[in-house]
Design goal:
about 400 residues, alpha/beta, TIM Barrel, eight-stranded parallel beta barrel, three-stranded antiparallel beta sheet, about 35% helix
């Protein structure tokens, strides 16, 4: 009997000695255990948060008067507007095929475009793209760069608005048409876009009125990749906002066409646009499938591939050229209105950053360009030159 007790004691000691010590808990988490006698927690019903009141910028009366006094009336250029006839984009007496590129100047992308751009300095870039057959530029404006003092009405920032005026005229003098994207990267932390803040409505009307008679602007693209917002906002709210923005442009810019670029749920935009616009950054087979679906429901509305591109970050230049060639081929074989490549240039890492986070780290989004940061063409330019007719196959 004593022997048995001795044996059990020896086994218990051995078990304790051989059990590993658990590592210290440094995660800040504690173990939760179920207590059947604990009271049930009170369930608080979900309440939709009310919109946060906007804190809009206010300026002094003197600064407002000075800003308004130095902004001249915009004088539009001569020329014909792009229209739609028989399901095609049309210029004067012939179809207008869009051979386009999404464009920021190499040294002035994103927030630098309307705040820092030296317009005469980009003459070389505009000539470089034009000589290779490109006829359309898709550009992006930011309302916060163009307007100030929202609490006091629609007050333009004179230098930046004049910079946009000059860019439009400079591009038009070279034969370009412009697709102007109004909401590419909204300032979500500053205003709830889909709640139709009054200052955004007023600013949209201002832009539309200012350039209403400018034929260089062929179209306004209301929202870029708008269907990606379905994940955070109700689809009905996004489309209701799209309809309201279209109504503003219809009223104040009756000469320009209206579109909106969606990525996946493209057919949602059909009731609100003059021509269908979509983006694609995937393989060519899925592009063909998108095109087939759109053509089955488009009716007499033209279809434009407004963003297509492939980065030379993880693929080489030959692969980029092949992908762009196949994408353009799919557009042409299906008689779409045209294509707009993403993008013209790779950007210097000192240009795509904001202080104090400069220079930026290189990343795939900065390698979509057809030209690199030294203006040296990548092999994909061959596909563009072939499609625009500058170079002949064979």
């Amino acid at each position: 009997m004593k022997h048995a007790f001795w044996l059990v004691g020896w086994l218990l000691c051995l078990l304790v000695a051989c059990t590993p010590t658990p590592p210290p808990n440094t995660s800040g988490l504690t173990i939760a255990t179920f207590d059947p006698n604990a009271p049930n927690p009170e369930i608080t019903p979900f309440v939709q948060p009310s919109p946060t009141p906007l804190t809009l910028e206010r300026c002094t009366p003197d600064s407002i008067d000075r800003a308004l006094a130095i902004i001249p009336t915009y004088t539009p250029s001569a020329g014909a507007f792009i229209t739609i006839q028989n399901g095609q984009l049309w210029q004067t007496d012939k179809p207008y095929p869009v051979y386009g590129i999404n464009y920021y100047p190499r040294d002035y992308p994103n927030h630098r475009f309307l705040t820092e751009m030296d317009v005469p300095a980009i003459d070389f870039e505009l000539d470089l793209m034009r000589v290779n057959g490109l006829n359309t530029l898709r550009i992006f404006i930011r309302y916060q760069d163009l307007f100030a003092c929202e609490a006091d009405g629609t007050i333009p920032r004179p230098d930046n608005l004049l910079r946009l005026d000059q860019f439009i005229q400079t591009a038009g003098a070279r034969g370009y048409k412009l697709i102007v994207v109004l909401h590419h990267d909204p300032a979500w932390d500053e205003y709830p876009l889909y709640a139709m803040p009054p200052h955004i409505t007023a600013q949209t009307a201002y832009i539309a009125r200012r350039y209403a008679d400018e034929p260089i602007i062929m179209a306004y693209d209301i929202r870029d990749a708008g269907d990606t917002d379905y994940r955070q906002y109700r689809k009905t709210a996004v489309l209701r906002w799209l309809d309201a923005m279209r109504a503003i442009l219809d009223e104040y810019a009756p000469n320009q066409l209206i579109t909106a670029t969606w990525m996946t749920d493209i057919t949602d935009t059909i009731p609100y646009v003059d021509f269908i616009s979509f983006g694609h950054f995937d393989d060519v087979e899925s592009l063909r499938q998108k095109i087939a679906i759109l053509q089955s429901v488009a009716g007499d509305k033209p279809i434009l591939l407004s963003s297509v591109g492939y980065a030379t970050y993880e693929m080489d230049e030959l692969a980029q050229r092949e992908a762009i060639y196949r994408a353009i081929e799919a557009v042409q074989r299906n008689n779409l209105a045209g294509w707009v490549i993403w993008t013209a240039f790779d950007y210097p890492l000192t240009a795509i950053c904001q202080d104090p986070n400069c220079p930026a780290a290189d990343n795939p989004s900065n390698r979509f360009g057809i030209w690199n940061t030294s203006y040296f063409p990548k092999r994909a330019l061959d596909a563009i030159r072939l499609a625009t007719g500058v170079a002949q196959e064979g």
